[in-house]
Write a structure and sequence with these properties.
Elements (H helix, E strand, L loop, with lengths): L6 E4 L4 H17 L3 E7 L5 H6 L3 H21 L1 H4 L4 E7 L2 H8 L5 E5 L5 H17 L4 E4 L6 H14 L1
Parallel strand pairs: 1-2, 1-4, 2-3, 4-5
Helix pairs in contact: 5-6
Length: 163
């Protein structure tokens, strides 16, 4: 059976993005499809405010920071990308818009599940909801990795010491 299309994965910084990229690499390897790794970024204040008062030096700095985050993520995942046909794409656009426009009907779109708390869902869930609503292809949502017992103990101790 021949599978057409690509595996398209949207990444940002954080554990959820790393988990999504690794799962996308696994799916690309399993289905023998090329992988498109997309990092979409925008001005922190949003495009509308930036257009109202553009500042090219700040825009260049934001692009450089987005590129550095993207490069670090790819470097950390190089062993998972080894042997795959893959392409990185850094794009200035709303993440949900970029992903739904880049992924065609024959593609598989992989996104991170984001945080588990109410605040995380409220703040970051917009991209996930908009991507799921606008996608023209199957979407695989990858959960953020669970914390290890040692990580939980460290968080507990840090919380107790801060109190």
């Amino acid at each position: 059976m021949t599978v057409h299309g690509r595996v398209v994965v949207g990444v940002h910084d954080g554990d959820s993005a790393t988990a999504a990229l690794r799962r996308a690499a696994l799916e690309a390897r399993r289905s023998r499809r090329p992988l498109l790794v997309v990092h979409a970024w925008g001005p922190p204040e949003g495009e509308a405010l930036h257009r109202a008062a553009p500042c090219p030096p700040l825009a260049a700095e934001w692009r450089a920071r987005a590129g550095a985050v993207f490069a670090d993520l790819l470097e950390d995942s190089r062993e998972h990308l080894a042997g795959l046909e893959w392409e990185p794409l850094l794009v200035r656009a709303d993440p949900a818009y970029a992903l739904t426009r880049l992924a065609g009907p024959d593609d598989l779109l992989v996104i991170g599940g984001g945080g588990r708390g109410r605040l995380a869902r409220l703040l970051r869930g917009r991209v996930r909801r908009a991507t799921l609503a606008g996608a023209r292809c199957p979407v695989l949502t990858v959960a953020r990795p669970a914390l290890t017992l040692a990580d939980r103990a460290d968080l507990y101790l840090a919380h107790r010491l801060a109190a």
